[in-house]
Amino acid sequence: MLCLVELFVPTAFVAFTMGISALVVALVALMIPLFPVQVVLWLALSTALVIASRRILPAAKVAKRLDAVEARTLTEIPPGETGRILYEGNSWQARCDDEMAAIAPNQKVYVVRRQGNTLIVVPQDLLH
């Protein structure tokens, strides 16, 4: 049942790994009918599979927003600071949405929102 839930509710394979753990525990329950052992085994397998799936699956990237508009950096945007971008023919103050990322000059970026007079952008390579 948990494996089927994954088809309809995207849980990053958490429900799927719990379902796989439940199937394995069901097979083990035929040989070891002790309920506490089954619960501990299910918890251990579920935890191990979730951790393993996090390492195997690629890290999630920022999804490309349909309403994001392209722009180009005029100056470097240092991590956590502002720089300048060319947006709709005008120079705007901009900050990267990822506080830890720096964006080099003359890079394609996407404007994702506005905070006052500052545009919040993400670099193109973060979206693809």
From TrEMBL:
* NfeD-like C-terminal domain residues: 74-123
Q: Which residues form a coiled coil?
A: none
Q: Where in the cell is it found?
A: Membrane
Q: Which InterPro entries match?
A: Membrane_assoc_protease (IPR052165), NA-bd_OB-fold (IPR012340), NfeD-like_C (IPR002810)
Q: Where are the transmembrane segments?
A: 7-33, 39-57
- Membrane topology label: Multi-pass membrane protein
Any one GO CC term of the record: plasma membrane
Check the record and name the Pfam families matching this protein: NfeD
**Entry keyword set:** Membrane, Transmembrane, Transmembrane helix
Where does the source fall among the domains of life?
Answer: Bacteria
> Transmembrane: is it a keyword of this entry?
yes
Q: What is the protein name for this chain?
A: Nodulation efficiency protein D
Annotated organism of origin: Coleofasciculus chthonoplastes PCC 7420
